[in-house]
Amino acid sequence: MLTLILAESSIERIPKAIVNDPSVISDAKRRRKNPEQLILDRSYHHKAINRLSNPEKRGRPDIIHITLLNCLGSPLNVTGRLTTYVHTIEDLIIEVSSRTRIPRNSERFKGILEQLFESHRVPTTGKPLLQLRKSSLKELIRKVSPSYVGALTTQGNYENLTNLGHIIVNQKKPVLIIGGFSKGHFTKETLKLADQTISIFPKGLESWTVASKVIFTYEQALEFNDICNSNP
Ligand SMILES: C[S@@+](CC[C@H](N)C(=O)[O-])C[C@H]1O[C@@H](n2cnc3c(N)ncnc32)[C@H](O)[C@@H]1O
Fold first, then answer.
1. What is the pLDDT at residue 232?
2. How far is CA 168 from CA 59, 91, 105, 223, in A?
3. Are 87 and 8 in contact, with CB atoms under 8 Å apart?
4. How far apart are CA 230 and CA 12, in angstroms?
5. Where are the beta strands (DSSP E) in 63-145?
6. pLDDT of residue 131
7. To the nearest whole number, what is the mean pLDDT of the chain?
8. Contacts of 115 (CB under 8 A, 6+ apart)
9. pTM of the shown model
10. Can the peptide bond before residue 75 be classed as cis, meaning omega within 30 degrees of 0?
């Protein structure tokens, strides 16, 4: 069983500081919502985001959208061997049920997020597929209680994927952390939570590419282990 955490992810509602920005007002009109209910999105609120602190880590719900589509559609998830969490830059955690079917359309995905930030769960009745709660990454990791935590970053030590597969498949409860942002690096607090920092390629890759690669690596390592275990 592998747990993936998309950490410091660029998902939040419109911050108060830019709620009256013309780009926000016109987006709210277009979407027939109150400005405070909208999910911050660089595609629509670019200039306003650049006035915020830490702008490179803000307003990229598309990263989580594409990464979740990859995670939830993977054979590992479909066979019930992947757990996915999204941790946001505001220390919120989205618990993602492996049964969740994420809309393919990015505007519809944002609509789901807006509903989640409003009700803290989607759907609002019955078994939740997405749940939102306040928690730091440290608290989440304590709750998951992993046997190993690897943080994927270009600043880590290079590990080829076969070795990485070998490391995680031999762990009882491995957790891998991938950044859910487009630029910049993990904070010191996040790095402190990892047993190992790992680079899988000499250049920066997109979060969804890294997620797909580590999931496939784990799937392959599991198959190899299954073969070894069935031929003693
Ligand atoms: C778009 S990158 C963020 C940019 C950051 N400067 C970087 O290169 O790590 C999003 C995330 O993908 C993962 N990532 C990207 N390239 C990687 C690599 N070569 N090795 C390991 N992880 C990588 C990291 O978790 C990173 O936080």
1. 57
2. 32, 26, 33, 13
3. yes
4. 47
5. 82-88, 92-96, 121-122, 130-134
6. 98
7. 96
8. 122, 124
9. 0.96
10. no
d(CA 157, CA 75): 28
Instruction: Say yes or no: CB of residue 209 within 6 Å of ligand 1.
Output: no
CA distance 4 to 122: 20
pLDDT for 77 equals 97
CA of residue 100 to ligand 1 center, whole Å: 25
Amino acid at 26: S
Tell me how far the alpha carbon of residue 123 lies from the centroid of ligand 1, in angstroms.
Answer: 32
Look at residues 18, 45, 48 and name the one whose alpha carbon lies nearest to residue 110. Answer: 45
**Which residues of the chain fall short of a pLDDT of 50?**
none
Residue type at position 93:
I
CATH T-level topology, domain 2-11+58-230? Alpha/beta knot (3.40.1280)
Q: Which amino acid is at 219?
A: E
List the chain domain ranges: 2-11+58-230, 16-56
What angle (nearest 5°) sits at the alpha carbon of residue 149, between those of residues 145 and 154?
Answer: 155
Question: Six-digit token pair at 84?
Answer: 């996915």
Q: Which of 66, 81, 101, 18 is nearest to 221 (CA)?
A: 81
Q: What is the pLDDT of residue 231?
A: 64
| Probe target for ligand 1 pocket from 8, 137, 152, 163, with the most ligand atoms within 8 Å of CB | 152
Supply 163's token pair.
């070795």
Distance CA 159, CA 165 (A): 10
